[in-house]
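Quick bug: ATP-dependent 6-phosphofructokinase output formatted oddly.
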Amino acid sequence: MDFSISSPLSGPFPAAPASKLFLNPKSQFFRSFKPRNSYLSNPLLSRRYFPIRAQVSDPAVDDGFVIDDVPHLTTFLPDLPLYPNPLQNSQAYAIVKQTFVRPEDVVAQKIVVQRDSSRGKHFRRAGPREKVYFTSEEVRACIVTCGGLCPGINTVIREIVCGLNYMYGVNDILGIQGGYRGFYSKNTLTLTPKVVNDIHKRGGTFLLTSRGGHDTQKIVDNIQDRGINQVYIIGGDGTQRGAARIFEEVEKRGLKVAVAGIPKTIDNDIAVIDKSFGFDTAVEEAQRAINAAHVEVESVENGIGIVKLMGRYSGFIAMFATLASRDVDCCLIPESPFYLEGKGGLFEFIEERLKENGHIVIVVAEGAGQEYLVQGMQGIDEKDASGNRLLLDVGLWLTQNIKDHFTKERKMAINMKYIDPTYMIRAIPSNASDNIYCTLLAQSAVHGAMAGYTGFTVGPVNSRHAYIPISHVTETQNTVKLTDRMWARLLASTNQPSFLNCDESRGGKVCTANSAGRIQSGNSSPFCLHFLSGRFMTCYLAQILDATYLF
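Here's what came back:
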C-alpha cells in the first residue's frame, strides 16, 4: 500500500481555487504559481494542504482487509422476496441526507494503524437498509430479557417496541416473561408503544427475568408454533450463547426467523464493543457510595472505608469509579494480583496512608482476591443457574483481615466502614447517557432484523454501531489490561502500589510479583498466577516469594 496525493491530477477531488489553498497571495510562491507543473514539482507543499489517501499499487496484493460478516436469512432461504423500506416514506427521515446505509459500509475494529500495517477486521455497519425482507403485516416479534438486572433494560425494551411500530409499522409484538423458560411456559404479554410508554423511568426489567432455563428445542418449537419471525434477546454472554444456539436451530429447520442479540452486562466485560449499556449509570451511581465512604472515614480518626463494587471477572466499574472519584486511595480488581503482608503489601500501604492523611478509602471489585478466600472454604466451585461461579464476599473478608491486623498485631485503634451498594446500583433506572445509548442499540437491532440479518449482536465499535457475529462476544471477555495507559492513569491518581515490578529489558514487558500473597504465617504461601489477557486464574500453593508475569 502506498500513499499518494489526492490532487486534481491523481485523485477524485476537484481542483481547489486559489482562495482555498491557504497561501499568502503576496508570497513568491503564489506569484509564480502554475496550476500543474509547479504543483507537481513541490510535493511537500501539496502534501501539506491536500488530504492524503491510501491506494493499493497492485490490485493483486492482499492489503489485509477482512469483513467479519453476520449471517443472513438468504443464506439458507435464497428465494426470499425483497420489499421497499417504509422509512423512505417517513416524515422524520425525509430530512436525512442519506437515509439508508450503503451495502459496502463497514466499521473498522482497529483504527490505530501504521503506514504498512494491514487494514484488519471490519464489521458491517448498523442502520436501515434500502430493501427489507419483512412486510409490516407479516412481522410477529418477541422480546426476552435474561440474567441479572442492569440499568437500561427497560429502555431497550421500549425502544425496540417503538422502533418496530413507528419506523416499520409493526403492531404484533410479544413480551416473553421470565427469561428463556418463558418461551415454553407460555408467559407472554402484548407490547405496544402505549404499554411501554414510561417503563424507561423504572429500574429492573418490565418483562421479568431469570437465570438458566435454556432448552433450545423447546424454545424454537414455541417460536415456530406461535409464528414468531423476529426474536430480540437481551442478556449477557451466557444469554448470547443461548441466542447463538437458537439461531443455529432456526437455520437447521429453515425457518424465516431473524435472531438479534442486544448484549447486556453491567460489568462492561462484553468483548469487541466499546462498552455495554448500563455501565455509565453504574459508574455514576458508584460515586455516591464512594463519597459516602469518604465522608465517613474523614470524620473519624484512622478511618478505613471499603466499598465493594460489581466486577466478577473484569474491574472496569471499580477502575472508572476510582478515576472519576479522586477520593479513592487504592483500587483492587480481579485482573491485578495483590497481597496483604510484607514490604509493599496492602497492610503497609494502609498504615502509610493513615499516618499521612488520617483516613483511607479502598474500592474492591467483587471478583478480586478470590484466590485467597478459597483456602479452607467449601463451595467455591458452585455455580449459579447461568453457569457463573459463585463468589465469596471479598469485601467482608478484606474488612476482617484489615481489622485483625491493625487491632491485634499493630495494636492500632481504627474505625472500619464497609459499604456494599451492589444491588442499589443494579436496580436504578439508566441515566441520560445510557438512555440515548440504549435507543441506538434497540433501533440498530430492529434495522438489522428487518434487513434480514440474523445470528448477530449489535454494539458500537470505535463509536460506530455495527453488526457483530454472536460468537465474537461470547468466545472471550473484555478485561482490564494492566499494561494499558488507563490502568497507569489509575495508579498515578491513587499512588497505590502496583504489586508488580516490571522490566522491559527482555524484549517484552515482564512483571514480577513483589511477594507472595501470604494470609497467615507458615512455611507454605498461597500464590496465584493470573492470566491477565484471559478470563480465569490458576492457583498454586508454592514456597516461593516471586513469580513472573509475561504480557
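Actually, after a second look the formatting is fine. Residues 1-57, 515-551 have pLDDT under 50 and may be disordered. Closing.
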